[in-house]
Every structure is written in C-alpha cells, then in structure tokens.
Amino acid sequence: MQKKYKANLALGISAAGFLGTFAASGSGFAMGLFHHGFLAATIGGLADWFAVTALFRKPLGISYRTDVLRRNRGRIMDAIVTFASEDLLSTKNIMRVIREQDTAGLLVDYLEHRGGREGVVSVVDAVVLKIVNDLDSASVAKELAPAVREGLKGLALENILLELVRLLGEERHTRRILHSVLSIGEQVLSSPAMQQVLLDNIKTLRKEYEGESAGRAFVLSALGLDDKEILRIFNEKAQKGLADLLSEQTESYAHLKAGFESMILSFSRDESLRHVLAEWKERWLEQVDIEGLIAKWLETNLKGENPFWLPHLHDFVEKRIDTFVASKPWQRRFDTFMKDFLESELEKHHELIPGLIRERLAEFSDDALVAFVEEKVQDDLQMIRINGSIVGSLVGMGLYILVWAAERVWGV
Known about the structure:
By secondary structure, the chain is mainly alpha-helical. The chain is 84% helix and 0% strand. It contains 20 helices and no strands. The longest helix has 45 residues, at 366-410.
C-alpha cells in the first residue's frame, strides 16, 4: 500500500474515532482519553495534510500562501541551479571524486577484459581510413610535386647508376652474372627456334660456300657434311664450350671474366656516360608528369578498404596498447594527464553547467515540475502526515491526562 493511502487511512481512522467517541467522551476516563487522542490526531493529520498539499496545489481552494512550487518556481529554480553548479557540481567537488579514481586502471581493464582493444583498433582503422580516403589526391600531389621535383634534381642519379655499375663489376657479382648469361645461352642454344635459325643460316652459308663449284659440293658430300651434320657439330662444339665456361675452371673463363670485369669498371669510370645519364635525367624530369604520378600512386596504394599500410597500422596500435598495459610509468602519466586535462576543461567551461541545468529544468512545465517533485518526495511527505496524526494523538492524550489529574488533585 502506498504511503499516501496509509496517510489518508490514518486521517480517516482519526476522524472516525473522534466522531465515534464524541457521544461517550464524558462517560469515563478511558473514553475521554481516546476521544481527545482521536481529536488531536485528526487536528494534527489535517494540519499536516494542508501543509503538504499546499506545497503542490491549493488545498480546499485556498490560494493564500499555498501552491508553493508554482508561485516560487523562479526562486526555487535559481536556488537549485546555484546549489547544483556552485556546490554539488563545483570543479573542486567533481575533481575530488575523479582524483580518487584510477583512470589508467579503468582503461587497462577496458582494453584487456571488456573488448576495448578490438574497439580501439577498429576506431583507429575507421578514423585513419576515413582521413586517407577523403584526401584530395590531386591537391596533395600538387603540394608535393615541387618538392619531389627539386629533390630529384638534387639527387645525383647518374652517380648512383655508375656506382651500381661499379658494384656489378665486383668479382662476387660478375660470377653470378656470367653464370646466368651462360646458362641462358645454353637454354637458348638448345631451343627449337634457335636450332631452326641456325639450320637456316647453315644452309645459306653452305650454298654461298659451294657457289658454282662442283668440287666443293663433292668434298662436303664425301665428308658427309650435310646441313644437319654441320648443325650437330656446331651444337657439340658450342655446348662443350659453354660447359667449360660454366665450370669456371678453364683459361677461357678466366679471360672472359677478366674482360667482363674490365668492361664494367671502364663503364663506371666513363665520364661521357655520366654526362649522358645526367642529360637523360634532366630531360626525364622535364617531360614526366610528377604530379600525375604522385596522385595516381596515392589513389592506387594509399586509398581503398584494405590498403597495404593497414596491417602495419594494426601492429602499431596493438604494440602501443601492449606497452601501455605493461608499463606502470605510462599508466601513471596517463592518469595524471587525464585528471589535469579534465580539471583544466572543467575550469574553462564550468560556466556551461548552470546553463545546462537551467535548460533541463526549463523543459518542465509547472504541472510537470510539481508532478516530478511530488513523485520524488511524496513518500517522505506522507510520512509527515502519518507522524502528525500519531504525535497529535499522543499529545492530545497527554494533555487530557494532565487536565484530568489537575482536576482530581486541585479540583480545578
């Protein structure tokens, strides 16, 4: 049963008791005691009912000093705003509560046990992807192109290329290059296409050699040197020569290797080649659309739903989270930073709090405000009514006893 019904019941019982004992109130001590107790309880209950009701509306239509909330709404609102903003929600009170909290510990718990790690990674991915995909590639390229062009102009590309050539002339590289070239030569030599080319050229050469001479043709025929035989002999000699060179043990290979190294070294020291490369670089820089290349690279490589850099961003964020979780100094710095940041922001923007409170309170109409306040405090107010009836009855009976005793003792 709600306390309001209990308070009404108490008032009803008091009134009913008063009326029920009215006729017999003079017939004895007990009846008089109960009658005056019910009377005082009824008076106390009615007085408290009037007082409680007067806070929210006009009891019995009486408007003088009643309907307190509506009549004093402005003053009450100002008092609430002042109390809430300057006392309850003052920067000092808020920071006293915040400084008792371990913000870093709360963050670690969120990251490790409440899905925060995945959430942080997801948010970072979404934010960075949004930023990158919203970039105007043409504008970025336009800004970068002059610096890139100047950087390429200042880059001694010809020196780099000649240095690469010089490195290729070192013994460890020349061996690999020669071995690769000779291996490719073997494969090319044995390929059907090359064999057909060689056979066609042998036929041409043989015809030119024989000419109109029947003797030369007779000699070649007598020796069994037809086109295919000559090709076989050539293949045998060529393959043996290539195999000897690949073995790297022959004098021919040593001469070939030395000659190759000498040629590479001479290229790396050739000033005319350096000059040609420098001129080529200048012409290339004049002709190439650096701005377009940068824009195309940005569109192709940086943007999209799953660009190449996204896994690296994942790893970076994960490592930073691991470092934070494992590092007490980092956590202390974070805790201090967050609390100092919140305090500075509260001090800078504390004047917003009264406005927010006032704005929220302004959303209540008079009736809504009355209903809201009454709902929050009516149980306690109804207890005042119940206590008024109880205390009134006790006081009434106490006074009746005092009067009764005085009449018996002093004959008043």
